[in-house]
Amino acid sequence: MSRCIQRSFRRSALTLVELMVALTIVSILAAISLPTVKNTLRDQKLARAAGLLRSAIEEGRARSIAGGGGGVIIDRLGKDSIAQRCSSNRIRFATAPKPYTGDIALELALIGVNAGGTPDDFTDDTIALWFRSSALQLTRSASDLSSGTRFRTLINYGDEVLLGDAGLRFTIQTIDFGTATLRASDGLPAALFAAPNLPPTWVRVQVVANEQNLNMLRFRGTQSRFSIFRSPRPAIAMPIEMPQDTMIDLSVSGLGRYGNQFSPMAIEGNYLDVAIAPFNSVSVDYESVMILFGARGEVSRVLLTWSDGSQTDLPVIGDIHLLVGRGGEVKTAPEDQLEDTDPNPIADDADDGITPLLDQESIWVTIKSRTGEIVTSNWTDPTDDSTSLIATGNTAITDLDLRQQDRIQRTIGRVRASAVASSDIGTN
């Protein structure tokens, strides 16, 4: 009986040859399935990144509806290289402060005008608003600006001023402490001030009228109520970081079907010469892209911000399209962006460095400008029997730089329209 049990026990074990065969089979199966698993995980990561971006935008929109203004800020990775300027993996919330009307009741601005033009031509007039030291936020802003800390100021260059009941609108150009010399050049007599010599605590805000050829001489020396609409700024909230190895490709993101207004190439107007900005190594003061919503949830403003605190408004000419792709794949030259050296970019292996614009794993996140609705669209092949993936440029354009811009934007439009249209009709 014991021998039978012993023989049975010995038969239940694996020989070395059997073990090696089993390990070989397991290794082969793992090698076959690993790329599929790897691609699946990568697809899931991009889907999570696009979902996170969409959720952040929806929250920024909801905050705006609840609080009367705000949105999201898309931060560039940095400003020291074209790849950093073209990529983002962090989103912050923006808030629009309430208009500033002074720190005391019935605070007034004194209007000064230096007539620099000819009669009936007011385009060269210099318009300045003078504020007493009781306007504490303006006093602090003038102090900050004089010390070079522009990005910390409460009121800044580019902010809009509304004067009186007539609704005259102006844009702030400079903020500084006034002097007796400037008072005299603005046509303001010393009698309007507390002493013959102007106290250094008065703040002088030079503005430019939003309405062309506006005659402000008739208001010189008068006082007016005011409202200053301060530029939006980051909200006090933790930023949202996208998953590792994912990013927003700003080189192909922008407004409208063909727009890539967030790209340094579009900002600098250079799609060809890598010896000058934005391709050279000289640091450029790129900062963030700011998307703001109105009280009803619509897109109200889109701004490019700069490291000195200034902002540039982009016209909202269409929906906003943001491309979510793999991190580290933004190209450093425009010809690489279109994979010109690759005969078949769609068939690329996942690890050979395809540009996000042509990567089937990339996802478009679109903000409908009129309603604020956010939708996501998977990458869709825009080609058929009569088209190619990469569009040809308009050969009628003789300027090579403009021809390259046209070619890149045509390709962007082709890929973007295909994905968004597929999403709109429910096939994506």
From TrEMBL:
Mark out the compositionally biased spans (Acidic residues).
Answer: 336-352
* Entry keyword Transmembrane: yes
Q: What are the boundaries of the region Disordered? A: 331-353
Where do the TM regions start and end? Answer: 12-34
For this UniProt record, the keywords arranged alphabetically read as follows: Membrane, Transmembrane, Transmembrane helix
> Domain of life, per the record?
Bacteria
| SUPFAM superfamilies, per database record | Pili subunits (SSF54523)
**Gene3D superfamilies per record:** Glycoprotein, Type 4 Pilin
A family per Pfam: N_methyl
Q: Which NCBIfam families match?
A: IV_pilin_GFxxxE (TIGR02532)
Specify the protein name: Major pilin subunit
